[in-house]
Amino acid sequence: MPTQPLCATTPDRHPALPFLGGLRMARARVHEVCGPARRTLALMVAQETGGQTGGPVIWIQAGWLPERLFPDGISPFIAPARLIFITARRAEDLLWSMEEALRPGAVALVVADLPVPPGLVAVRRLHLAAQTGAAEGRVAPLGLILTPGEGGAPGVESRWHLAPRHGPGQDRWRLERLRARADPPKVWQVDMSATGALGLGQMRRPPPAMATEPRPDSFSAGARDMGDDRPI
User: Fold this and answer.
1) pTM for the whole thing?
2) How many whole angstroms separate alpha carbon 94 and alpha carbon 87?
3) pLDDT at 159 over 90
4) Which of 125, 141, 189, 207 is the most core-located residue (most Cβ within 10 A)?
């Protein structure tokens, strides 16, 4: 009698999610996004899970923190109606909610906006929940944990950092892949055109006269970025 493997579905069997034209994130796994514009990068990834009008995205946030997403800041990337918000009252409910959202495999993307990076045991539980969703659910879900500063959650599939580099009349960010299981660290420049299209290019070092600290994001509540971690 032929034997069957103990786990018939593995993360590698699911095609990676492409984003920003040439980058990838493995499905059925959990990735970390950090930096001052981490929420903007999460919206860029959400755009790839179904465009402006695709399926729902679950966004988990801490109820005791003031940061919130505003529709005018969401709309350049996805339709605000795609977001389903879960507001946790306690710190332990943030990761529990993410596990429960990943496990059914009902949505393509689950985002948890965390005040601190989770520990290794918590990350492993999230990976297992995402793998269960891929094996038993409708889609292979991808999990994003958003962490402040440089991040540092152990055991994540990959870690990405996004920071604003806006100029006069130009929406621009610096994207860095800090770590990944299958890819080396690398830096890119992300530009948004006047029509809202996102483009990816190699990061160019500014001339000495311009090598200053990036300006804080000065957009209003209807802006395209949260470069200084203010709600959009």
Assistant:
1) 0.83
2) 8
3) yes
4) 141
The dihedrals phi and psi of 174, each to the nearest 5 degrees, come to -105, 120
pLDDT at 204: 56
Alpha-carbon distance of 55 to 36, in angstroms, equals 27
- The pLDDT-based confidence of 228 (bands split at 50, 70, 90) is very low
Q: Domains along the chain?
A: 19-159 (3.40.50.300)
Residues 6+ positions from 155 with CB-CB distance below 8 Å: 120, 123, 124, 127
With CA atoms as reference, report the closest residue to 232 among 147, 220, 47.
Answer: 220
